[in-house]
């Protein structure tokens, strides 16, 4: 049984935006990444899946149960992108509150709180939440999402406030969750993070999913070619810009995005422009290359972060 299944799931607003006809399958025990430009509908989709928004069409199953099912909601954890906690509470008091909301006994909450605070590196941190740094509050948010030992965890930009060491610690934490059979649904703008830990991804643009599958399949779409040239004249530069205005030139090494079927024409045009061409080979594409090629540079289209959602 999949952890998440959606069938033409739609959440649209009167003013426009949201997500539409989203059909996804997220397997149990995997780390699944949701990618998309700002305003693409990512936050709308996540909030619909966790039950904060009611869909306007389609349906979904969470841990085999329909959206809004109380038993399923007790088995998920959620860290929103924007959150605020009572500054006068300590970390343990906040987790006690979240444990009670999840229906845990005091003893269960006490044991699980100690474990998750240790897991996120806050076990020995004294004082009130109001004195915490932004990075510490981000770690505390992760602890709140994990305190009830959920089977499925939704994380919206979980490393946005962390330094490189903190981001590495979160990556290691997510991999440990996966090793324990947990499912992680990760919404992140940090493509390098996604590339390091996600098993599969979906890309959303204008409220619709335009890619779903393994990272290797997405990376295969990054069509980059590497050329080794002699002297690079202005005429050669003009040819390169014709095929890819954003080409990169380092010394005499050129990297550019070009379709495979265009390579012969590129080589012919370079030679005609007087270029000395020593080598042509595929260049390893990055997730950023593939993402930009897939979604373009025109933005998300739909407003996934509708102002009315921020009070949810």
How would you sum up this structure, described in words?
The chain is α/β, with parallel strands linked by helices and 312 residues long. The protein is built from 11 helices and 15 strands. Helix 3 crosses helix 4 (106-119) and helix 4 (106-119) packs across helix 5. The longest helix has 16 residues, at 164-179.
List segments where confidence is low: pLDDT < 50 over at least 5 consecutive residues: 299-312
What is the count of β-strands?
Answer: 15
Query: What is the H/E string?
Result: EEEEHEEHEHHHEHEHEEHEHEEHEH
Envelope shape: elongated
- Helix proportion of residues, in percent? 25-40%
Largest sheet, order of strands side by side? Answer: 7-8-9-4-10-11
Report the radius of gyration as a whole number of Å: 23 Å
User: Helix/strand-derived class?
Assistant: alpha/beta
Task: Give the strand content.
Answer: 15-25%
Helix and strand topology:
Layout (H helix, E strand, L loop, with lengths): L3 E9 L5 E5 L2 E2 L4 E5 L6 H8 L7 E6 L2 E2 L3 H4 L2 E4 L11 H11 L4 H14 L14 H13 L5 E5 L7 H16 L3 E5 L3 H7 L2 E6 L2 E7 H5 L4 E6 L4 H10 L4 E3 L2 E5 L5 H10 L4 E7 L3 H9 L17
Parallel strand pairs: 4-9, 4-10, 7-8, 8-9
Antiparallel strand pairs: 1-2, 1-3, 1-5, 5-6, 10-11, 12-14, 12-15, 13-14
